[in-house]
Amino acid sequence: MKYLMTVLLLLCILANSAAQNKVTLSGYVKDKSTGEGLIGSSVSVQELPGTGVITNEYGYYSLTLPKGNYTIHYNYLGYVTSSKQVQLTGSQKLDMQLEQNTTTLQEVVVTSRKEDTNVKSMEMSTLKMQVAEIKNMPALLGEVDVIKAIQLMPGVQNAGEGTSGFYVRGGGADQNLILLDEAPVYNASHLMGFFSVFNADAIKDVQLYKGGIPAQHGGRLSSLLDIRMKEGNNQKMEVSGGIGTIASRLTVEAPIVKDKSSFILSGRRTYADMFFGLSSDEDIKGNDLYFYDLNAKVNYSLNEKNRLFVSSYFGRDVAGTKDFMMNWGNATATVRWNHLFSDRLFSNTTFIFSDFDYALGSKEEESEFTWKSHIKDYGIKNDYTYFLNTKNQLRFGLHVTYHNFMPAEVKPGEKSYVNELKLNSTSALETALYLSNEHQITDRLTIDYGLRFSSFTNMGPGKVYLYDEDFETPVDTVNYSRFEKIKSYHGLEPRIAAKYELTDASSLKASYNRTLQYLHQVSNSTSAMPFDVWIPSSTYVKPQLADQVAVGYFRNFADNMFEGSVELYYKWMDNQIDYKDYAEILLNERLETELLRGTGEAYGAEFYLRKQKGLLTGWISYTLSKTERTVPGINDGNPYSPRHDRRHSGNLVLSYSFSPSINLGANWTYSTGGAITMPVGRYEYNGKTYPVYSERNGYRLPAYHRLDLSATYAKPRNEFKKYSGSWTLSVYNAYARKNAFSIYFRESEDDKTKTEAVKTYLFDLLPSLTYNFNF
């Protein structure tokens, strides 16, 4: 930590001495129609080739240049590229508003500069998607889903038929950090995983980091999914929504004070339960099955140097019958304060709350009980961006998070035979300090290097069992009081990435990053189930660790109409957790005795070609990959494939605009089957029959493939009409492929001495119709 601060101080001294004859141009790049800041906009200087910056997460940029006259170009994908003539005799602020159409702005020259972000940016192993593009894709039951769109990209695997869980480059589902306006989301699924919690109407920006994760982020091994909510239209009131087969949505956004503050409120609810009441079957009539969520956000510009954001999310699933109930949900809240210390030093301070909880229970008198569990986070982040000069951009900051874990608490009813139970609750403090610098060494070579120091302290109240040599029988118990330290861990996480531009249309990129993960998910399901439990690193559970290297070749074609890339990666993982054979993980107070630890590796090649202009747009991707685990005590210590290992996967995503009113979409996806363990024999002992299983995950499910189609008719809104609407017809699984959701085994009905496998599937051809509106 002392070393980091010393380096920072030296860099600041050097910057001050080097900048004495220079001035700074800074400001925000925004969407003209809504006032939203545009994340990742390119700001470049025509007279100084290779000089430019990218706007940060709030659309802010800063350029330090010698005094003089310049032409500044502002560019963002899907917006008019604009230029501004500036005379820099002193530091000045210049905000730029970009339009989504070809209307010429005053004092702005519309240029023909093409998009080349794929080649020019530092980012690799990164997927960025626009919500408008996601909305054009076919959707399950008409519900546009951010995570299902991510699953169609190279290096990302789905968790099963129709589910919104995902795996990235061989990592587990719990190794993905999902942030909504910087707050962690621990369970991103609705309806047992078939839909995600993210309402596309409230989302502004979606970015997935598969590798090369920036130093300001940590806590997971495999990926970062960074989702930002809209800020609300600060120019005019706008209402939008949709009525679909399974759910309806409504979004309202408007200025509070025009150009200064705005709000957005977006809600969604399914209504399958409303039809249960119409059933003549009394067993169905009283059932519940629905989810709802609500997004809200307010922002206010206090003055030129201070801006405040308050955002929140609340969502819940409810399922149950007359005798049984289950509900689960997330709640997040963030308060963010943007402050400009100077035109080159930008800070963001964020206060964070996140809560995931679930409850289930029986309503029958003799077996009545309520089972509850939760994980809560309280955090603060203090992040800084210092635009040292046009060649160096520093990021540094401090993050502190307090975790509270309550794995399970069971309370019986007054006349119930169920026993009361409360598993060991605990808490933890996680901190991180980081420093990174994006350094443009030459016009063609840029390096981004950084270091993150993280620490984790598991604290009471709680108890730790002491075991004998077999690590199964407890011999003593140590009790810890509130906030008393139980176990601490810490580590350094270096990050480095490099980009070398071979030509104006091609570049080579490489990255290395080390990540530490202090939280672990205990689950025996491939999909995101509500009763999965998160546990902290502790006396017997060490932090997971991963090192990943990646190299890539990026090339644009046909005047940037096509962008392509090939990436190779290799990942080493340590302290990987898996379960003993026949492990008992449900309501187990001594869960550590069921866990085994080992190593893992994952490697692969990802191919990606995308057409981003014209009437026909879309992409094709292919991933060749392999991931293995080696855990003493499993599979005789030999390497084995985890369930999400799939050798081949490919996706084809197309969107064709016949006219401004008619759009057709198609998605086709293919992957080899996931790994499973199967019975390969049986034996009898004392008159009972027992199965003999294969090696761990030694067999494969059948290959998975599916075609989805959609057609959208939209009546364009002209200047005389304030209302617009569109109809979207989607067909999920258009050729009715019976993909295996699971396989179970039973005695053959024809021959009781044999065992047969039975495949279950969820979806046949499934159409849906959605009406969307905006005014």
TrEMBL record:
Keywords: Cell outer membrane, Membrane, Receptor, Signal, TonB box, Transmembrane, Transmembrane beta strand, Transport. It comes from the Bacteria. Residues 142-219 form the TonB-dependent receptor plug domain. Residues 285-733 form the TonB-dependent receptor-like beta-barrel domain. The keyword Cell cycle does not apply. Residues 1-18 form the signal peptide. InterPro entries: Beta-barrel_TonB, Beta-barrel_TonB_sf, CarboxyPept-like_regulatory, Plug_dom, Plug_dom_sf, TonB-dep_rcpt-like. It holds the Pfam family CarbopepD_reg_2. It is found in: Cell outer membrane. Gene3D superfamilies: Carboxypeptidase-like, regulatory domain, TonB-dependent receptor, beta-barrel domain, TonB-dependent receptor, plug domain. SUPFAM superfamilies: Carboxypeptidase regulatory domain-like, Porins. Its main location: membrane. It is a multi-pass membrane protein. PANTHER family: HEMOGLOBIN AND HEMOGLOBIN-HAPTOGLOBIN-BINDING PROTEIN 1-RELATED, TONB-DEPENDENT OUTER MEMBRANE RECEPTOR. Belongs to the TonB-dependent receptor family. This is TonB-dependent receptor. The lineage of its organism: Bacteria, Pseudomonadati, Bacteroidota, Cytophagia, Cytophagales.
